[in-house]
Amino acid sequence: MQLLPEAVLVLTALVLLGAAVAVETQSGKPISKHAAIVIAACGVVLAGLALCYVPVDVDSGKSLIVIDPLAHIFKAVVLGLGLLAVLLPPARGEIPQPGEFYALMLFALTGLLLTTGTNHLLFLFVALELASLSLYLLVGFSRTARAAEASLKYFLFGGVSAAFLLFGLSFLYGFAHSATLAGVADALGAGPPSALAVTGLVMVVVGLGFKLAAAPFHYWAPDVYQGAPATSAALVVAASKVVGMVVLVRFLMLGFHAVSAAGSAAWGGMVAGWSPWLAVLAAVSMVLGNVLALAQTSVRRLLAYSAVANTGYLLVAMSANGASAAGAALFYVIVYGLATLGALAVTAAVERDRGNDSPVAFAGLIHRSPWQAVALLVFLTSLAGIPPLAGFVGKFVLFSAAMAESTKGGTPGLTWLVALAAIMSAISLYYYLSVLKQAFVRDTPDGGNTAAAGPTLSPAHFLAVALPAMALVVLGLFPALLLDPIASALVASLGLR
Amino acid sequence: MTPAWTIISAFAGALLVLLLPARMAIASRAIALAASLVGAVAAAASCLTRLNNPLDPVWSFDRPWIPGFGIRFHLAADGLALTLLLLTGIVAVAGVLFSWNVERRPRAFFAFFMTIIGGVYGVFLSRDAFLLFVCYEIVILPKYMLIAIWGSTNKEYGAMKLTMYSIGSSALILIGLVVAYAASGGKSFDIAHLASAHYAPALQAWAFPVLFVGFAVLAGMWPFHTWAPTGHVAAPTAASMLLAGVVMKLGAYGALCVALPLFPQGFEQWKPVIAGLALIGIVYGALTALSQKDLKFVIGYSSVSHMGFVLLGIAAGTHWGLRGAVLQMISHGIIAGLLFGIAGRVVYERTHTRDLTELREFDLWRTLPGAAIAFTLATAASMGLPGFSGFVAEISVVIGLWQFSPWLVPVVAFGIVITGAFSLRALHKAFFPVRNSDDAPPSLLPPLTWPEISAISLLIAVSLAIGLYPKPWIVLIDDGLRSPVFHSILSMP
Amino acid sequence: MLLLTLLLLPLVGAALLAVWPGLGRMSAVSLATVWSVLPLVLLAAMQFQHTGTGGGVMAEWSLPWMPDANIHLTFSVDGTSCLFLLLTSLVTFSSLGLSARLDIGNRAYCALILVMQSMLCGVFTARHFIPWFLCWEMTLIPAYLLIRLWGGVGAPRAALRFFIVTLGGGVSMLLGFLALQLSVGTMDFAALSQLAAHHELTAGLGRAFVLTGFGGHALLTVVAVAVLLGLAVKIPVVPFHAWLPDAYAEAPTPVTMLLTGLLSKMGVYGLLRVFLPIFPEVLPSLAPWLTALAVATVLLGAVAALAQTDLKRIFAYSSVNHLGYCVLAVAAVAATCADHDAGAAAVSGVVLQAFNHGIIAVVLFFGVGILEVRSGGARGLNDFGGLRANMPVFAGLMGLALLASLGLPGLSGFVGEFLIFYGVFGLVPWSAAVSLIGLLLTAVFLLRLIRKVFHGPLRPSIAKWSDLTRSERWLFAPAIALIIIPGLWPQALLQFINGDTLRLLELLHPFP
Questions:
Q1: Which of A304, B240, C45, C205 is an S-S bond match for C219, by CB 3.0 to 4.6 Å?
Q2: What is the dihedral angle through the alpha carbons of B241, B234, B151, A455, rounded to the nearest 10 degrees?
Q3: d(CA B299, CA A126)
Q4: How far apart are CA B298 and CA B371, in angstroms?
Q5: What 3-state class would DSSP assign to C56?
Q6: Euclidean distance between CA atoms B117 and B455, whole angstroms
Q7: What phi and psi, each to the nearest 5 degrees, are found at residue B449?
Q8: A142: left (phi over 0), alpha (psi -120 to 50) or beta
């Protein structure tokens, strides 16, 4: 029962492959894109239904697969984000074999689902690699030079990161003599961390840093965001990032929660541990991401650098080493995923309509397609942290929690980092606004200021834009809908206060 | 009608306007007018109720919102908030009337307009720092859009500058609030709760200026005022009115009702600096206005100067000073709205210039006498002539300042004199030019329309009403200043 | 309530004019003319209601404004106020009537004049600095606009100069009173004079401004000078008269009538009702200076009038000269109250002189207006001649007013000047003696005027001018009556003010 959703996904993938073969042998043409999308989407929805029947339990420490409340929530989230990615159709002729492509999507989702639900080091690695391998292929699927470059970069960086992760995991096993995170925590609790443990930890953080596109491990991100088919990119930016965050939370909050390992990143009160490490990564990511985003002329690359910056905000919360901060980070990563995915969906539509994804291509979008422009407004302002959207609430609680968790005796420790984050977040509005300026203020250069000139979207694409936008508004107005479950899940799953 | 109707009406109006079908777009202005009237009436009714029942508990609405972080949806309306609500309502009505001729994308225009109004109402009513911050930031994007789409001179630059100043100052506010939240134990964002906590003096010494400057940027504090003139000039009339009329008040309100109560010791320490900056602002704004060529720039810099009085009153930190600050907020809101309305809408739409030398050709007194008389009254009000609201406010600030530091009063007097000078100069050059008899006769301009006349009369009437009978306003403001959050400020030596 | 109605009535008229778009230009002027006398009805009703004798407060109205700063909008009418209110309505009425005759003005013009009337009523009844100052400054805008917009070629400059100079005076006055508010916590005239009587003003100022290092007396002197400055500009007293000739000459004649008949009276009223009661402590030290200025005003006004050839400018400087007598009397009272009778005479003289000068000025400027209508704008001293021949009624009435102006016994001008000189001789004889020269000069230039304009051979160019029409005579009538009646029966006016005069002297009495 525990693996029911994954099983549904794999079965659907097989059905899809079979159908693709059948259609191709019968008609000589590959299966139609739309049919593949419908089958894959049905599979994801079914997996979601199946998830309802999965029994939720806390980690007993015995099994590889854990369906604790945290895993349960995030499986649902990953399935939701995966569904949105599936619904975002590739451009005409971009994907030569839709059957295989969507089957790979489902395999990647399976891997991501598995990754969310384990506290076991080895199983974690295996599940992560299942997802990663599928993603490498998906990124390069369209066989253009750009996609090939993106895929190669993603593969190389991903491979290196996997190696780091694996090294790290093995060191940890060597230190704790246990392959579970609980075992690592026990070993750390027994005494000061040994060099072995520290090396392992550093390597794990580097490995996950690649996955999360934290600077300076972010070099793959711009190319993947720009070169990959929108569909695959959507999966990478949203679902994969959320899962990376869940893994990071499990590692840090369960395995390395002990103060001796965490240290402190407080200004003037720096204590060695992973906390200052993350703080530095966070600061570098925020500064680099935001500054480089200012200079981009491609909206997809801009979103990539914004992803780097947003990873920085997430790491700010993590470096505070507290349950509420971790909860806030998990909330924020979901919100971030929704917003970026939606922005990517709109960008894809504009790109197909105007031929490129420079901000100028967005000029006059409000005239050509008002609701797309409004959706874009929702996504980008949510990313910039403007109320009443979820991105604002996310950032606010993120910063508050980071500050509150790092407060000792009435003196906040992480003020410097949070202040940096707040200022960087303010700067980010500039580049988001430069896109919105084109969409809302400027007119279409060739005078096509009519609704008829606008891009028409398939129903699936429409859903891929509308659903995240609605979700962002609802979560912005009622953040407790998601924040509270995450907080209680963290308590129940990881035993945090 | 409870004060909640102000917020509800504004956002409902914005939504309704957006939902209008394209062929009925022009009806959006009627909807906006109706919505802002409902807001204004609700505010006025609440003010009257409060005046009649001063001892009743204040209206409040308190529900949990994000329980994990102690964030509540907490609205409450004491007298101080109510007066500012009423100001917002009045400026909103006048703004819609002055925008009656907007024909380019009217639905979007009025939707953004009403969103700003709703956000402003929200700030004044919020008693939770998070909610206040939400409402404070809601305003940013519509501001940008209004200026960038419907603006004039250098609009995209002005809009972006304003937006970056706003968001930058919001970052400072965010830092200040989050620090207070963390240092008070991370339990609640309720302003009263945050204000009742004790913060270490060392913390207050740096957290106060961060929070205060964050708010004061939007209030146009020198040297962070530079967004104001460019933003005001670039903005369409209604947006200038809103910017100067109410959005600048958001900053002042935040400084007064959040920054001061949270970090009273920090305030005590930084008082002289704030007073100094405020004085520089008063004099600098007035002197700069004296040398401007564009009528809107004159008004823009005069706003900087007038907002200096607000900050000065706050810096004085005495009961009179705070009261004067709020009075000046209201007074400047009305008068700036009026000045911008006349300069931007009534004159500019007819002459297509705001250059003081070019306006000479139009001989506005002959061609547009209504506007000339209205602007004369507005100028008189802006100069602080008795009988208008500005006088009441300035006299209160001066009394407050006197109690704080008598030496500064002469500087203020100097500022007032310069204010008179630049107001008269602008009035003369723009409306009563000296023309030779052999100059070509000016072409006729269309007379004032009824929305313009109603808006002008409304604003002048309010300014006169405050100037002639300020007592109810004072009673309401004092009602707010009696709130426990001000105890730590007003009980200081 | 009656008083409030009186204050607001002209404003209602102004609002009516402002919102009545269909109203024709001339019917607006007629409506305003009629409207401007309505306050007289209320004044009469007030008189009728008031049963007490010997002056005293007839009507009162008060509204808390900033109660915790002791600021109330307090207005009240006593005998002196009553006279000034009467003058206000009469002058406004005449001014509007002349406007109709001269065919100038429109709805805005009339509305502005009515606003000014209302504000003047406020100035003459306010009992607290704030409402007083409020009305004081609010007269500025209508006056400015009236000069600026309906005046002659040089009006823009003249109006601006008038505005800035009087505004500066206002600011100085405001600062002075603000200092009092900050140190003793009130700006109420009665309260301040009570404090002054107990020497608490000097003490309070000394305490509040201890940082400046000056004593209370010096500080109060500074405050008094600041207030005096605001008043002196308005009257005007030499050397603050620079704005006057241009403003009077450039303004349309009906507006000049208002300026000299009413606006200058604000200053006199302020000297008498505000300055004297509040600053008795420093009056002796200020009095010599004030006396010097007053004498200079008297002499300079007369000399300047001699040198003019424009009728309007002659009358303008003559006004300076005549109001100089008022200042002279005030200065004398300020200097000493040793002789109670002389003091009473001087104070009464100030009021009467102010009132009578207003009435006489009405007639004189009315005459200028009539001449302007007939001549098409010319008003030089040498443009006319022999008018007595073809305009006997006009010449007679003008002659009456001119003689009243130079103080012929039996006419109103005499009463005021006599009382003033009687009083001043009793108090500060030298100044009265010097001022007599002014009186002589007045006679010279007024007689010269009569000779040049009304006597001599009739110029052919003006031979066809007709005498006053019936309506013009009616406009002249009330003012002429008010020139003759007080001249024969001064008690008619004095009974209004006797009580107030005694009260004022009582306030001044404890100070040597």
A1: C205
A2: -120
A3: 68
A4: 17
A5: coil
A6: 17
A7: -90, 170
A8: alpha
pLDDT, tens digit, 9 for 90 and up, residues B123-181: 999 999 999 999 999 999 999 999 999 988 788 898 999 999 999 999 999 999 999 99
Integer-rounded Cα radius of gyration of chain B = 21
Instruction: Specify the DSSP element, H or E, that contains C77.
Output: strand C71-77
d(CA A208, CA C493): 102
Can you read off the two tokens belonging to residue C85?
Answer: 């209110």
Long-range contacts of A477-480 (CB under 8 A, 24+ apart): A477/A388, A479/A331, A479/A390, A479/A393, A479/A394, A479/A397, A479/B66, A480/B64, A480/B65, A480/B66, A480/B67, A480/B68
Which amino acid, C178? L
Closest CA to A422 of A319, A286, A324: A286
**Is B181 at the interface with chain A, CB within 8 A?**
yes
pLDDT at A409: 72
Q: Please say whether the beta carbons of B92 and B125 come within 8 A.
A: no
Length of chain C as a residue count: 512
Peptide bond into B223 cis (omega under 30): yes
Strand partners, B294: B355
The closest CB to that of B148, out of A392, A441, A487, belongs to A441
Q: What is the DSSP letter of C457?
A: S
Q: Encoding tokens for residue A72?
A: 């349960």
Please name the amino acid found at residue B30. Answer: A
Residues of B in contact with A387 (CB under 8 A): 133-135, 137-138
Q: Is residue C253 a contact partner of residue C325, using CB atoms and an 8 Å limit?
A: no
Structure token pair of residue C245? 């000739």
User: What pLDDT is attached to residue A369?
Assistant: 87
Categorize the per-residue pLDDT at C512 as very low, low, confident or very high, splitting at 50, 70 and 90.
very low
* A483 within 8 A of A331, measured Cβ to Cβ: yes
CB B201 within 8 A of CB B265: yes
With 0-12 CB in 10 A as exposed, 13-18 as middle and 19+ as buried, what is B197? Answer: middle
Closest to A251 (Cα-Cα) out of A429, A120, A111, A424: A120
Strands (E), C423-481: none
B137 and A404 within 8 Å at the Cβ level: the answer is no
Query: B205 contacts in A (CB within 8 Å)?
Result: none
Q: What ipTM, to 2 d.p.?
A: 0.91
| Interface membership of B392 toward C (CB under 8 Å) | yes
β-pair partners for A397: none
Q: What backbone torsions phi and psi does residue C150 show, to the nearest 5 degrees?
A: -110, 5
Chain B partners within 8 Å of C133 (Cβ)? 386
Distance CA C37, CA A260 (A): 94
Cα–Cα dist A277/A265, whole Å: 8
Place of tokens 């994000």: B66
Cβ within 8 Å, pair B200-A412: no
> Other C-beta atoms within 10 Å of B80: how many?
25
Give tens-digit pLDDT for A278-295. Answer: 899 999 999 999 999 999
Cα A258 from Cα A196, distance rounded (Å): 16
Q: How many CB atoms lie within 10 A of CB B407?
A: 11
